[in-house]
Amino acid sequence: MSESAALGTVSAVWVYPVKSLAGTSVNAAQVGATGLEGDRTHSVVDASSGERITAKEEPRLRELSAAPGQAHPAIQVPNADVGEQVPAAALSGWLDRPVDLAVTDAEGGHAVDAFPVHLVSEGAMLTADPDAGPAACDVNDPRANLVLKLHGEGAAERGWVGQRIQVGDAVLSITRTPKHCLGVYAEVVTPGRVAAGDPVRLAD
Q: What is the mean pLDDT of the segment spanning 89-102?
C-alpha cells in the first residue's frame, strides 16, 4: 500500500462500554472486526424480562457515563457512591426501577446500531445546525468513536463514502452516512490500533 498525503489526524478516541450511556475518551483503542475494544460490550436490561432498555425509553440513561473496567464497565451515577454499589444497584436507584447490566449477546460482543465504527470531523460539529431537530444527534455529543481534525472544511468526511481510509494501523471502509447523526459509518477491513494523533489517509 503506497502512502498518500494525510487528510488530517485523530483528535479523540471514544468508547461507549454501555449501550445508551455516555462514553469516555481514551488515548488509544484496538479496532477489531466488530468495532473498538470495550465499545458497547454491555446493555442495561429490565431485571424481570431481560429486555434491553435504551435511552429512547429511559432518557435519564444519557446523563450517566461509563468507562471500561476490569470485571464490568465503571459507571458514574450522580449522587451515588458507585464504589460501594454494584452497577445494577446504582442503575436501579437512578432509574427508579429494577434493572441489570448484561453482557451484550450480539455477534462479537458489541451492540452497535449500524456499523462497527462511527467517525466524525471537528468541522462537521462546528458547522452543523444545533437546531436540526430532536431526531438529530447532539452536535456536541455525536457519539462517534473517532473524532477527526481534518484539513478540509465542514463535513469533509462525507466525501469518503465508498472509499477506504487508513487510521493508525487500521483500515476502514467508509460505508455510508448516518440517517440522523453527523459523520460517517465504517466497516473494518484491517484491524489495528488507533490512537489520538494518528494520521488519517486514503488507502489504496
A: 89
Distance CA 149, CA 122 (A): 6
159: containing domain:
6-36+113-202
Cα–Cα distance measured from residue 203 to residue 168, given in angstroms and rounded to the nearest whole number: 12
Q: Do 84 and 15 belong to one domain? A: no
Q: Look at the block and give the residue holding cell 488507533.
A: 194
pTM above 0.90, yes or no: no
Whether 182 is in a domain gets the answer yes
Gyration radius of the chain over CA positions: 17
Q: State how far the Cα of 166 lies from the Cα of 153, in Å rounded to an integer.
A: 20
pLDDT of 1 > 90? The answer is no
| Contact of 19 with 52, CB cutoff 8 Å | yes
Rounded Cα distance between 180 and 160, Å, is 18
> Lowest-confidence range among 80-84, 127-131, 192-196?
80-84
Shared domain check, 105 and 194? no
Q: How far apart are CA 110 and CA 103, in angstroms?
A: 9
Residue 51 in this model has a pLDDT that exceeds 50: yes
Domain count, the chain: 2
Q: Are residues 117 and 198 in the same domain?
A: yes
C-alpha to C-alpha distance for 184 and 160, rounded to whole angstroms: 8
